[in-house]
Specification:
The protein is 23% helix and 25% strand. By secondary structure, the protein is an alpha+beta fold. It binds a DNA duplex through strand 3, strand 4 and helix 5.
DNA sequence: GCAAGGATATCG
DNA sequence: GATATCCTTGCA
């Protein structure tokens, strides 16, 4: 697939793009070796009319990347401590995006554990050694399946921050990018549900079934 | 059940 | 400039 046709795939209707992101690989190229996660949970945000979308107030300094090219990144900080990754969809000027909510770690599990520990250290005001050791022990006990089972955890696992805003997720040279699933990967079924954490948007937006998961997958958030 | 934590949008 | 709110997580 050429770069242009891949780009065109992300310019398609956001709900279609969201479903097709399931199973794709999120790849981080650290200084050491690759981190690879299989996308198992996403949510679609459908522009200014969608009262749950960051685009609901129109274009601002924060959401500007949503107005850019499809296939690029929109990264935001939520609750003051978690970086969340979105893939921009639809043609430039249409501020739609898909939030990557969870991935299944496939490669670089120990690198992900190290990145999770770094993130925990960063978001604490003090670094009490005893507490740090408790966090470390907890991460060692955490099954690989659960290391990136939530949008903030995806950000921590891949060391994401807002410097990635607007970067091209379809460019293999980008520090974080997307890759297609292997052709021989088994089929899976897709479950739909309401989006998480957006009650403030009110009906009908709070109940639209625009959250998509690989049905029954252990790495889906709870 | 709730605190942590900081940027953001909106209001005065 | 002040403040309410937030596409969350981990521990009490």
């Amino acid at each position: 697939m050429t770069a242009d046709s891949l780009r065109a795939a992300f310019a398609r209707p956001t709900l279609d793009v969201a479903r097709s992101l399931l199973g794709m690989r999120l790849v981080g190229d650290g200084s050491n070796r690759r981190i690879v996660g299989r996308i198992v949970e996403v949510e679609a945000y459908l522009g200014p009319a969608d009262r749950a979308s960051h685009a609901r107030f129109g274009e601002t300094a924060r959401n500007r990347p949503m107005y850019g090219d499809p296939g690029r990144a929109y990264v935001y900080l939520v609750y003051g401590m978690y970086h969340c990754l979105n893939v921009v969809t639809e043609p430039a000027g249409t501020p739609h995006a898909v939030l990557i909510r969870a991935v299944e770690p496939l490669e670089g599990v120990e690198l992900i554990r190290a990145a999770r520990l770094r993130a925990e250290r960063l978001r604490r005001r003090s670094i009490d050694p005893a507490e740090l050791e408790r966090v470390h022990a907890r991460l060692e006990r955490t099954p690989a399946d659960r290391l990136a089972a939530g949008p903030g955890l995806v950000g921590a696992a891949f060391g994401l921050d807002r410097t990635l805003n607007g970067s091209d997720l379809l460019d293999p040279a980008n520090p974080v990018h997307l890759e297609a699933a292997p052709a021989d990967e088994p089929a899976f079924s897709i479950a739909t549900s309401a989006r998480v954490g957006i009650a403030y948007a009110g009906p009908p937006w709070s109940s639209e079934p625009w959250r998509f998961t690989i049905a029954g997958h252990p790495s889906v958030s709870r």
